[in-house]
ABC transporter permease (Shinella pollutisoli), 262 residues
Amino acid sequence: MRRLTAALSALYAGLIYLFIFLPVVVLVLFSFQDGTLPVPPLNGLTLRWYEAVLSDGKLMAALGNSLLVAVLSSALACLLGFLAAYAFARYRLPASALLRGLLVAPMTVSTLIIGLGLLSVLNVTGLRLSLVTVGIGHVVINLPLCFAVIYASMGGHQVNIERAARDLGAKDWQVMALVTAPMLMPSILAAFFLSVTFSWDEFIVAFLLSRFDVTLPVEIWSMLRSGLDPKTNAVGSLVFLVSVAFLLVMELAVFRKSGRSS
C-alpha cells in the first residue's frame, strides 16, 4: 500500500511539473527550428533565429526599455513600500487598518482596470505616454507587493535595537536608514526582485501607457500580429532565460543570506 501511494504521489507530481514546464520546453525547442514555422516536425537545429533576434534593433531597444523600466520602477516601489511599512509598523496612525487595506487593494484589482484608470488620469493631466508613464504604472502595481513583503517582516524584536540606537544619539532618519533598513535587507531584496520579475514581462499596463518607446512584451505582441515564426520562440526563450536569471539571483542574494543569518 505504501509503495502504491508513493508511486501515485510521484505520478501526480510528475504530471504537475509536466503541465507547468511542457509549454516552456516546446517554446525553447522550436526556437531552434530550422524552418519557417515553429511547429512539428523539427526539421533540424539552428541558431539563426537567435542571431536574428540579437541583430534586430527594435527588439534590442525594447529589451533595454524593459530592463530600465523594471529596475527603476521596482527600486522606487521598494523605497515607497519600505517607507509605508515603517510608518505603519512604528507609528500609531488613525484608521491604520483601513489605510493598510487601501494600500494593498490594487493587488486584488485587474491590471486592465488599473491601466485604464491610469490612462484616464494621464489624459486629464496632459502627461504624454512614454516609458515614464509605463514606469509609473508599474510602481502602482508593484507597490502593494513591496509593502506587503516588507511589512510582514517588521517584528517587535527590531524595536529594541532601534531604541538602543536612539539612546546612543541616532536621529530618526539614521535609525531608519542605518539600522532598520539593513535588518530588513533580505525582505527588501526579495520585494525588489519579485517586482523586477513582474515588471519585466508585464504587458497590459505597458501596452496602454506607452506609445513609441515600448517594452519587450509589447514588441513581441506586435510580432505575433504578423503570425508565428521561430523568431518569436527565440524571443520568448530569452525572456524566460532572463526571468530565471532574476529568480536565481534572488535565491542566491536573499534566501541563502537569510538562512545564514537565522
In short: The chain has two domains: 25-54+227-262, 72-209. The chain has a mean pLDDT of 84. The first helix runs from residue 2 to 29.
